[in-house]
Amino acid sequence: MSKKEDFVKFDKVDKSYDGKVLVVKDLNLDIEEGEFVTMLGPSGSGKTTCLMMLAGFETPTNGEIYLDKNPISNIPPHKRGIGMVFQNYALFPHMTVFENLAFPLRVRKISKDDIDKKVEKALSMVSLSGFGNRMPGQLSGGQQQRVAVARALVFDPSVVLMDEPLGALDKNLRESMQYEIKHIHESIGVTVVYVTHDQGEALTMSNRIAVFNDGKVQQLSSPDKLYEEPVNSFVAEFIGENNTFAGEISDISNGSCKVKLDKGEIIANPISVKSVGEKTTVSIRPERALINPKNKMDNNQKGKIEEVIYHGDHTRVRLNLLGNSEFILKVPNSSQNLDIKLGNEINIGWNSHDARALDPK
Amino acid sequence: MSSEQKILSTDGIPLEESLKQAEEKNKVKAFLLVTPLLLFLIITYIIPIADMFSRSIDDKMVTNMLPKTYKAMEQWDGKELPPEEVFEAFYLDYKILVENKTAGKLQTQLNYEKNGFKSVLKKLARKQKKFEEGNYKEQIMKVHKRWRNVDYWRAIKRRAPAYTYSKYLKGVDMYSNEEGKIVQVSEDRRIHRILWSRTLEVAFFVTLFCFLMAYPIAHLLATLPMKYSNLLMICVLLPFWTSLLVRTASWMILLQQQGLVNDFFVWIGLVADDNRPEMMYNKTGTYVAMTQILLPFMVLPLYSVMKTISPSLMRAGKSLGATPGVAFFKIYFPLTIPGIGAGCLLVFILAIGYYITPALVGGASGTLISNQIAYHMKSTLDWSFASAMGLMLLTGVLVIYWIYNKLVGVDNIKLG
Q: Tell me: the pLDDT tens digits for B166-182?
């Protein structure tokens, strides 16, 4: 059986709370069955609103949301059969872990034996077997989180929504939980819609990421494409680190362009620029620029080292390059002893393909 | 260096000791800080209750008035008329009382014990002035034939103990009869039991009405946006800032037969003008006024508990497939139980001892046990009986608290 490509479909969805400002504008989004899609964006970008509309706690002002081809705007949340993991877990504090997990099964009038089996299975899935009789208050944050995940999955929903579920955990726990959730998703193949503002989390876990800003999806693509090939300067800025040059197109031909800066000129890859004279922001990932490149690169500039910060696995070098004093380089620890010293002038090179000329900021 | 060597502080005292000294000082300081409150509690609460208790069981009055009589009675078995010594002792005691003009108290007290004692004693007071020395038994028995009835002497003897629980028996419409058995008073005089049960009934229903009204209000308060909830909170608290008397009086204006509520009912044609219902000076008035006055005591604990319940819990319930109703009863309601417990306990305990409101709007059928206590304090001046009933009320409250603790657990109460 082939997977449905538009299992969850947002069709021209608008949302406004006060009738003046649209927090979600003309949203179109198709999510494939079994996919792990992350909605990533700064706070106030409309991602949580989208999730709440999908869960049924908010209604779209315009447009329609389809779940497996059925419009769901008029279906109340409890009939949608969508599991949800909340930001602060929302475990029922007066029920044991077992009762928490049995809750969705009991309201569905499932027989007691089946409930026992399913709850036991769900608990072992999150490696919490034997914790059934604990109260949520007796569990650590990570354990509570796992109970919340198990509870959202125990009734076999077709879609599971997660609203920044790892936000309250400390860094190490957050990372191990990311893998755990990813593995659970891979093993049971449920469709997951995940909301976060943490790009590391999004890049680690997702099949595809929808970057939200200003009520719109800026880019929807796989993590590697998002990082390597951002389509606009917001995405380039938001995902990972980024060096930028603001300039004007002076020449464009054969898939490359010349950008005139205040000081000097660079060759770049025209992404969202088409003609000479357009304003543009050129974006280069720090690791794409090399010091004293061995191979010939079509951009070669000299820069002065302004700051050197040792980071263990790599060293961050801040340069003044072409009038940009915030140009960052990441030098891997394994690279041979380069002459990285404060105040030195060094040669920097990068391929024009990696310098993406995007929309001006 | 041995591990047992003592660590010394800079001035040479062992560290352990100087730590102890420092802690001692802190303890004394802390104690001194709470002393004023402790004294206040002792003076205004513990001592009055102890005094109430001693007053309620105190029966020394008669004992002190007839010291010789009771000494002589020690040998008497109470089966037949007492011997001459008792008569003589009684004559001497009573003579002193008559001379000191305190015989009236004895007459009243003994009349409580046995009806008709007062007139006999009064007659004796008049006649005994002419008594001759010796053979008092004959002389006293000649004054009135009731002195030959052993029951009257038994009645005197019953008052011999310095302490009595008869006031408590009276509080539940019982008394110990002439044979010393505890029996109930005749049916038409069982007023206190009616009052006790009415007090419990009113307190129960006021608590119930308060709960039914306060729950939605508290829920609104906890969920509305700040600017509306503040306004609502002021509406809830406004009665708190108004004098109890003013509030009760305004209920009188509203509820009386020519009052605003009745006028309104007549105006909309609900009742005929000549058939206005009585909503005051009966239980209805008590219910209405007390519910309104005690409402904030239910709203506030409920509100403080509801405020802490995350709205995402209800959402979680719904997303897991529970209808709004099921989600409410399985998730929200159980989480508010600490607030319900606190509110109900507070309102019930306040209602059980309520005084002013039932006194003003309760009429005859709406007065409660506290009004009876006040009546005995102000009108009959039977303070020992009032004390006994007050203590019974206090004990009742403590019992309710105990039961509540067993059922809900006091640790689960949240007052905010």
A: 888 888 888 877 677 88
Both B208 and B146 in a single domain?
no
pLDDT (tens digit, 9 = 90+) per residue, B240-277? 788 888 888 888 888 888 888 888 888 898 888 888 88
B286 and B358 Cβ atoms separated by less than 8 Å: yes
Which of B318, B320, B323 best probes binding to A when mutated, by most A CB atoms within 10 angstroms? Answer: B320
State whether residue B320 sits within 8 Å of chain A by CB: yes
Predicted TM-score of the model (pTM):
0.78
Domain that holds residue A321: 241-358
- Does the model's ipTM exceed the 0.90 cut? no
Kindly give the interhelix angle for A112-125 and A141-153, rounded to the nearest 10 degrees.
130
Instruction: Tell if the CB–CB gap between B321 and A92 is shorter than 8 Å.
Output: no
> What CATH number should be reported for the domain holding residue A297?
2.40.50.140
**DSSP states of B279-328:** -SSSHHHHHHHHHHHHHHHHHHHHHHHHHTS-HHHHHHHHHTT--HHHHI
Closest CA to B137 of B67, B85, B65: B85
| CB within 8 Å: B318 and A78 | yes
Tell me whether residues A78 and B322 touch, CB distance under 8 A. Answer: yes
Interface of A with B in 8-37 (CB under 8 A): none
Residue B334 near chain A (CB below 8 Å):
yes
Distance in angstroms (rounded) separating the CA atoms of residues A197 and A47? 9
Q: Decide if B334 and A81 are in contact by the 8 Å CB cutoff.
A: no
Q: Can you give the residue range of the structural domain that contains B131?
A: 60-160
- Nearest CB among B313, B315, B321 relative to A107 is that of B321
